[in-house]
């Protein structure tokens, strides 16, 4: 009951005209960026991060919430219409979603995705309301050893699960950790990876790293392939942008199952919504094979409904995990954690007591943002689709300029412009050779936390490493880490067996 009262207070704050405007702007911009192939919600948040520093924290994070969900729907819009997902979280939606478009049911496919996003996000938001405060209470029991265990779990799970190559995942993690330790060590005063340059004594700003790896790296990647790739053919959107009763009855069970599959993955650091969306799709496909007249391969509405609900449920509970425990479970959540720190805020149990107004207004804005997205996306899907007609050289040139302006506006340092160019080129090389990007962001954000936690734990125990596994919470987290490694090993053995066959 206390949570509902706090949510009511948050709704009262979020429903002010200015906050409603920020929700609308965030949802609009997130969707607009998400429909552009190769971009997505993490790219949108990365681009908007420098801009939001002119806003107060409440307005900034309300807008981020809209961007987050809007980017996910934008990803799916292009997956359905052009068979080109805006981000990896929408790959599973291409299989049946684009087939629906090819059979003349594009509007119904977009409606299925919009309602699925609403259902998944709504379930996740309810879970956040009910359980985020309890997670925060649990997190009070966390000390340095427990936070170190969480960080190690996030490192290993993200590096091993999101990439088909263990070596590439770990290499990306090393890049992120290297960026995190650049500068002067606050305890020993030693210079680390500064090469004697005074400009690096304070380290590299998270904004420079984020914009360079995610945004400018994508610009370079597209520029290197612009003459070899053609935009997908945009199918004309005609017909009713809503579902019939029969279609709703067909999709409803898949929406529910997808949301239930996706919700737990928001608190598991596996890099984002890729795994739950594929699990939801695979589950519906297995059920379809038992039907008298299988529909998969012909534009099955359930094959689109389930992954859409799963992806948004994962995104919603990821915000809850970030607020309650300070644990980013995806690249986008890691960027939002960096944004909290830029405002001098540390997500975790103390955030619910020190900044309760901000937390509950943000949670309330999740519900409002879902409604805004539903209103925006059902009638305006044709408008989003037309954004793909912008010539790529104009579009990505504009993004490059925006990257430079955003970085320079936050520090007014030419050094940061040089760094963002170098990091952007690194991001391009990582894409070129298929290295995952999520481990970099997790390493950059959680690296300092892991280092500080390890030092504090050893200082408090007089150098006894046994303190790292001296609590039930730490042992449980490391046991979860073992399960992750077993899963990765099992997946590798299955893949090898399939190749041998």
UniProtKB/TrEMBL annotation:
The chain crosses the membrane at residues 20-39, 46-71, 77-97, 109-132, 147-166, 173-191, 203-223, 318-340, 360-381, 393-411, 471-490. Keywords: Membrane, Transmembrane, Transmembrane helix. Residues 20-442 form the DUF112 domain. InterPro entries: DUF112_TM. The keyword Transmembrane applies. This is Putative tricarboxylic transport membrane protein. It comes from Nocardioides albus.
